[in-house]
């Protein structure tokens, strides 16, 4: 929890009023995104493309992997 979040929580308790519905939803979304990034491997992309390439290489067993696509020069 950041200093700002801690102060905000303290303020809500002191004044006896909670945060609004949209702020609660926003905080929940932020928390879920944070969990998702923690679960994701640090060496991989959000689409897990590095993991897919490793699996493809393990199936075909070559020491290289041919990449195809539209590359702009």
UniProtKB/TrEMBL annotation:
Signal peptide: none annotated. Residues 1-12, 22-37 have a biased composition (Basic and acidic residues). InterPro entries: SNU66/SART1. Pfam families: SART-1. GO terms for cellular component: U4/U6 x U5 tri-snRNP complex. GO terms for biological process: maturation of 5S rRNA; mRNA cis splicing, via spliceosome. Residues 1-73 are annotated as: Disordered. This is Uncharacterized protein. It comes from Aegilops tauschii subsp. strangulata (Goatgrass).
